[in-house]
């Protein structure tokens, strides 16, 4: 293959994978936007989502879409539960306390998942028969298309919620000024709960999509994608919703290009390199917050 | 009976004793002014009424019910609104969305629309800029937006914290006349101001705060003539 075909091919693969990074990154960024917390347990929600989907598909024999919806719902409930139990009591504590708690929650969920689901990987059921699609010299798979399509659909849905519904506007208001939001009569606790629910549901969908894509799930599957999505959120500008989407696609693409033109040993190193570069060159991220408040 | 009655209110910030047992009342339909120097405790008083700060002791009775332990959003639901110090509009939201959030607890779309029209009548500039983000407004326009937003919850009592701060003299007069207009529309007002002259002119009664205590109170007419007030707050 000539180099530019490889380039195009890898960009396409990168966009497909990146769409899932974007889904996960949205949860990081929304939670950060609203309570200034890096929710390190978010990757574990993604992992749980994959398992919920797995059980819905295998034990309950549900079709893909209901399985995904149920997994998203369960993940939403768990996300709200974590916020309620682990983070809410620390909301006025120093930030480091909540951060350490988040890391603890992440490790706890991993261990519990390992105990209940077993440490070894499970093959994800092949609900959709594998198909290769050729467009000129470029190859696509139907799974990539589904992954990309579902991710984009969910992002559009999120956009509509955040911009056009009452609760979405309340979310944005709370992220801009919590006290002013309270003075509007907004129940800030409820809005924060809702934010965790939405972020967790998106991560769960991502977990299922990736389970289908790689054919396997395991209790540690949340660690690397969680980290990469976190970097994606920082790259785009943490707290900025479109930034998470942009960051996710860039991360997915960068990773695939490095693997194609460099070496697959660097697959996971890309994330760290990007993180260091962003922190050095543009800590507020690509679409980082403009300060346009007048006082 | 007073619509709002604050009794022996104490508030601390850590070891700082910001309010040292202040008491005052607001009658239905009145404009009452709190004046006082920087750091006297005016903002603390309004924040505590809205539930943003917690009292150490004392009571805040609104329409016969002690609201001092309610969550801030519940206090709004009871009918106490606040336009906070420094405007605090939502900068990345449009003027329209800011006003819409003011009506967050209300359901009746028709009535909300009617109140929106009323806000646009009071502040025609907001109507022209309804699709602009609040952050792109001038300071004076942001103050108008903050006041309009405060009205959108249809409060029985509206707490206003230094609405004239940082505004040009022309605009200050305009804001004060709008406060009167809002009051004539049936909204009771508790006004905190540095501009003692204008606020005493439009209010019926006033309380003077000095380092967390009520130093003086009376009808605004009397206070305008009081030599102590004239010297300390009216620069005469
Ligand atoms: N968050 C806080 N932490 C500690 N002390 C505070 C805090 N907010 C206010 N104070 C203190 O409480 C006292 C009252 O402050 P407050 O803001 O209520 O005054 P104010 O009358 O509104 O003043 P200004 O006219 O400057 O707005 C001051 O001594 C202030 O330093
Ligand atoms: Mg003040």
Key features of this structure:
heterodimer, A: mainly alpha, two-stranded antiparallel sheet, 11 helices, 72% helix, disordered C terminus, B: 236 residues, alpha/beta, 6-stranded mixed beta sheet, 4-stranded antiparallel beta sheet, 10 strands, 38% helix, binds adenosine-5'-triphosphate, binds magnesium ion
Describe the structure.
- With 295 residues, chain A is mainly α.
- Chain A contains eleven helices and four strands; from the N terminus they run ααααβββααααβααα.
- Chain A is globular.
- The C terminus of chain A is likely disordered.
- With 236 residues, chain B is of the alpha/beta class.
- Chain B has ten helices and ten strands.
- In chain B, a hairpin with a 2-residue loop joins strand 9 and strand 10.
- Chains A and B meet through helix 6 and helix 7 of A and helix 2, helix 3 and helix 6 of B.
- The complex binds adenosine-5'-triphosphate and magnesium ion.
- Adenosine-5'-triphosphate binds next to strand 2 and helix 1 of chain B.
Helix-strand category of chain B: alpha/beta
| Average of pLDDT of chain B | 95
- The overall pLDDT average of chain A reads 93
**Biggest beta sheet attributes of chain B:** 6 strands, mixed
Q: What is the total tally of β strands of chain A?
A: 4
Per DSSP, the total helix count of chain A is 11
- The coarse silhouette of chain B is globular
Distance between the termini of chain B: 36 Å
Can you tell me the residue ranges of chain B where pLDDT is under 50 for at least 5 consecutive residues?
none
* Gyration radius over CA of chain A: 19 Å
Percent of residues in helices of chain A comes to over 70%
The assigned structural class of chain A equals: mainly alpha
What is the makeup of the main sheet of chain A?
2 strands, antiparallel
